[in-house]
Amino acid sequence: MAEFTALSALLNHGFDTVIDVRSPAEFAEDHLPGAINLPALSNDQRAEVGTIHKQVSPFKARKIGAALVARNVADHLTGPLAEKPGAWRPLVYCWRGGQRSGSFASILTQIGWRAETIKGGYMTYRRLVFGMLYDTPMPHRIVLLDGNTGTAKTDILQRLSARDLQVLDLEGMAGHRGSLLGATAAGQPAQKGFESQLAAAITALDPDKITVVEAESSKIGQINLPKQIWAAMTTAPRLVIDAPLQARAAYLTQAYSDVISDPAELKKRLNPLRNLRSHAVVDGWISLLDQGDMEGLATALMRDHYDPAYTRSRRIDSRAMLGEVAVETLDPIGQDKAADDIAKRLKQL
Fold first, then answer.
1. Could you please report the per-residue DSSP string of 151-207?
2. Backbone angles phi, psi at 190, to 5 degrees
3. Residue 132 burial (CB < 10 Å; 0-12/13-18/19+)?
4. Which residue of the set 94, 201, 213, 223 is catalytic?
5. Could you give the CA distance from residue 166 to residue 201 in angstroms, rounded to a whole number?
6. Which of 199, 28, 36 is nearest to 128 (CA)?
7. Which of 24, 101, 281, 349 is most open to solvent, judged by the fewest CB atoms within 10 Å of its CB?
8. What pLDDT, on a 0 to 100 scale, did the predictor assign at position 316?
9. 317 flagged as catalytic
10. In a 3-state reduction of DSSP, which class is residue 102?
11. Which of the residues in the chain have pLDDT under 70?
């Protein structure tokens, strides 16, 4: 049984494969990065065994559960594990490191593979993730990439990564573009799944180097930013991207092409703003949408909604400003220019 007391040690476990033997539903919510799911019990089987445990007896449940696990492991051995060599070293875990992972690993060991289980199972991993994100202050030097809506912050963030700067892409991990219209077709991960991605990304960072993070609110879609990352962001200095409204509108039209391709859905997302921006303003947006004037719609949304909100928040923002980065366009050339300028400034800090 392998015991881990630090998240970095668990993420750098050294085994060939990590096998999560929990049910598919448990795995879908969250799992160790890189783990594969070979369920000891399916969703329905797990529910069945749990019902028998409560309503009949623990002994009966264990007996039925053992038979189901044996059949499922047999299927995995003749399926996904059929071609594994004799030197293969798997690391196996379940919810608490108990019966499911123990039974699975025991069979693998009897075959001759050097299988081990994680002491405490998924709960050990989850405690380490929670401790990093909620209990331990971040030691990293964070700089926020800020700017009005449509200033291509996410794309520029990726360009900074290509310029040998550390970045944390919170919107990428959250599966959301961070605005009213930011939902994507793929949807968002569960909160725990997001936290797993974030903890792994933070573990890989060098705390002695600056880490660039896009300025966000404390919530991205349905995902809440954990306490310690949000605490670090609220005190981090900002670099602000400034671009003309016309350039921002052109960028948004391209970046949100998936949203504007479904006018009916877009109208549904705009209608809740009637109580905030008035019926007349929202009717004006919808008229532009009906005319197919997408750049006009993007311009109106920024002028009437996003920019005023940003201006209000900036008035009460006490975080230090490192300066502004002005660009005339937000096409790939303009984004490269902004990234070059930002990289130059940050490497001088």
1. S-HHHHHHHHHTTT-EEE-HHHHHTB-SSTT-B-TT-PPPHHHHHHHHHHHHHTS-T
2. -65, 160
3. buried
4. 94
5. 10
6. 199
7. 349
8. 65
9. no
10. helix
11. 315-316
